[in-house]
Amino acid sequence: MDVAKVVSEYLRTDAGVTAIGAERVWTLLPTNKVYPLLLVRRAGGSYRDDIGWQQGAIVQLWALADRRADAQALAQAALDAMTVANQATHDGAVVTGVDLGTIRDEPDSEMNEGKPRPGVSAFVTVYVHPAP
């Protein structure tokens, strides 16, 4: 199961996220970037049982924007959305738990007016298994 895809598709439907970043929630950065945007990528994790059914996936939520305040707001909106993702079915996956991390600075190395583009990220652990 592609947990990053499940999370990104869920976040594209959240009003708080789309109010700031429209539907610019990606699992890979697009060639023609429009900011602000949110990159969702799996950073690790493991299966939580012996049969490989339930995963504890560590997912990075990386918000990039022209201004740090916009990146911060988008990352916070994504964390707020993940709070209510718990105990629900999303795109064929049942989310049974979410552990939220904290937001930290993580600028992009791409230059923005002579300096790195503002960015912040947070890591969340998403406990998920396939829907029956």
What this model shows, in words?
The relative contact order is 0.22. Helix 2 (15-21) packs antiparallel against helix 3. The protein has helices at 3-11, 15-21, 68-83, and strands at residues 25-26, 37-47, 55-64, 88-90, 93-100, 104-105, 108-112, 115-117, 119-130. It has 132 residues and is of the alpha+beta class.
From the alpha carbons, calculate the radius of gyration and give it in angstroms. 15 Å
Helix content: 10-25%
pLDDT averaged residue by residue: 90
Write the element-wise H/E pattern from the N-terminal end onward. HHEEEHEEEEEE
Strands, total number: 9
Strand content: 35-45%
Which structural class is indicated by helix and strand composition? alpha+beta
- Summed up, the helix count is 3
The backbone outline, from C-alpha atoms, is elongated
Give the low-pLDDT segments.
none
Q: CA-to-CA gap between the ends?
A: 13 Å
Largest sheet: 7 strands, mixed
